[in-house]
Write a structure and sequence with these properties.
single chain; alpha/beta; eight-stranded mixed sheet; 5 helices; 22% strand; disordered N terminus; disordered C terminus
Length: 205
């Protein structure tokens, strides 16, 4: 069984990639990807890996119809984005972690016009749908990866945005370790575990 790490997006430096990550080039230098290169890596052979594989397959199957039935996801997204209004941050690198079909990427781009948006999701089919929405010259890249092992360098990101990712992971402790590792010292982590209507309001850390 192979877990894939795929980079899709416009040509750009990827200094933010974690050294030794399966997404990083062999020389660990700058990398510009134009073709959606796919590199294989083996997941740990444990129950969490099996759960992760099941989640990936479920979201792969749902990807084509997701935007038509994502009401709860959309409500949480709008609430999260509204929480960004009072935040003053000159963000250059933003991660949409668990991006699904990338519906938050465009409003994030409008809010932070100088930022590069990195969309990360476990499902390659979701990322393919997200790529269809990406404007031709947008500063947006996509990486297929497990959110509990994000292939980004330590303290390399200004803002992590994550909408309803937590219920899909079998390793919440590993997920929160990544939330602590990846942002810069003065960065933000903005997340919603479920929709605000379900009494779990978004949080900013």
């Amino acid at each position: 069984m192979l877990h894939t790490c795929s980079l899709v997006g416009a040509s750009a430096s990827t200094d933010y990639l974690r050294h030794g990550s399966p997404c990083a080039p062999p020389n660990l230098a700058r990398f510009a990807d134009k073709t959606g290169n796919v590199i294989a890596m083996n997941p740990a052979d444990n129950n969490a890996a099996l759960r992760t594989t099941d989640v990936r397959r479920r979201f792969d199957r749902a990807a084509a119809q997701f935007d038509g039935v994502d009401f709860v996801h959309a409500v949480a997204r709008d609430s999260l984005l509204a929480r960004l209004d009072p935040i003053t941050i000159d963000a250059r690198i933003i991660v949409d972690l668990g991006c699904a079909t990338g519906s938050a990427c465009r409003p994030l781009t409008k809010r932070f016009r100088r930022a590069r948006i990195i969309a990360i999701d476990l499902s390659l089919r979701m990322l393919e749908q997200a790529n269809k929405k990406r404007p031709r010259f947008a500063k947006t890249s996509a990486i297929q990866a497990d959110a509990t092992t994000v292939p980004l360098a330590d303290h390399s990101v200004d803002l992590i945005y994550s909408n309803m990712l937590l219920p899909t992971t079998a390793q919440p402790a590993s997920l929160f370790r990544e939330f602590a590792r990846v942002p810069r010292k003065d960065g933000f982590f903005l997340f919603a575990p479920l929709a605000p209507a379900l009494h779990t309001p978004p949080s900013v850390l």
